[in-house]
Predict the 3D structure of the following.
Amino acid sequence: MQESSNNQGQLVRSIGLISAIVLIISSVIGTGVFKKVAAMSAELQSPVLVLIAWLLAGLISLAGTLSNAEVASMLADSGGDFVYFKKIYNRFFAFLFGWTNFAVIRTASIASIAYVFAQSLNTLVVFPETSKALSDFSFFGLHLFDNLSVKLVAIALIIFQTYFNYRGLKLGENLSRVLTALMFIVMLTIIILGLTSSVGSIDNITTNSVKYNADTMSGGVLFKALALACLSAFWGYEGWASVGFIGGEMKNPQRNLPLALISGMVIVIVTYLLMNFVYLYILPIDEFINIYESKNGIAAVAVVNSFLGSWGSLLISGLILVATFNCSSTTILLASRLFYAMARDNMFFKKVDYIHPKYNTPSKALFIQAIWTCLLVLSGTFDQLTDMLIFAAFIFYGATALGVFILRRTMPDTPRPYKVIGYPVVPAIFILFCVALIINTLIEKPYEALSGLGLMATGLPFYFYWAKKKS
């Protein structure tokens, strides 16, 4: 379809409070709640500690949400934190945020979610196996053709959902409402059936792994294990801030955006705790450790299969398909607005500064996002991508929380429809945690951390080129 830069549409303020809450929930609940309990169990070897890690990660994410909400209540516009950072810091830092989202945070998130969708579909419809020669082929250490059929299905999903979101915001919003409602109905069914099942036992919650050593799991060792487990849990909570990218398409964003952020995150935290309690109630923790070590299978599927049998496997596989389909579609919708906002401000490829005249969507931003995301699907494993993006994301989450203090000093008289609860303690705790997580990831997972920083650095030549062109 021919698109003329002289014949543009415009973003329309059509998103209300309920729709914004739905978009937050659907952008967060994707894969982590079904998959990450296995990795966390292997790290902590204690069901109680696993639940504590989920709660701790949720409360820390909520602290970040509360901090973000105050900034959003003042500065809400299309582009979210990109717009905030220009005001709080400078154009360069705002660019680094936007570029990092393009290079890894949002695109790797979409790639990872789409990959799990394809894995789940593979449990229902068996895909052709990749030949050993293709699986073993390595390009700069990347096994591009490993699990090729799964990767191709993930790429097909990304292309389909990009086209779907290209056709209009309302289509994506309505789809998200339907899928989110369906997702909660199935999750509630699993929670009720799991808690009332004769298969489960409270002993599974109170019994540690046979590998658990109370003498060594204390002090610094416990702190390090909790930190690494929380890194997995944060993937489950990732995505809450991206709803700020559609600030320019929300009704009364100064009021509705903070309310949506807080309400959506509280709902997600409660849901995650209930789901993980059911997992650990049904199966002993050593089962989850075996799933993690075998690197084959999804924890939630094993749980539901154990107390509902074969039809339970179909139920949970269907739930994962719905959740991942919903999450990837919403993330594609939201993230594209950031790249459009960057291009509009001459800090991205200029042709991306385009709104489709008929559908009123940032069509070219959607397409360039899809191309890079498909390449990331081929580039590495699910866990590498998620650890990489969590490390990068928390650099900017911390910067937004720090912005609460800066704006209180530089813009004291600006109206704040919402002020962060527990100021200054809540944003200060969140900032300190972000610093600790960043340092811990650099030490414990240097490959993922340095890869994230390397992808951030790839934007520097582009920034100086666009800055020179603008001047």
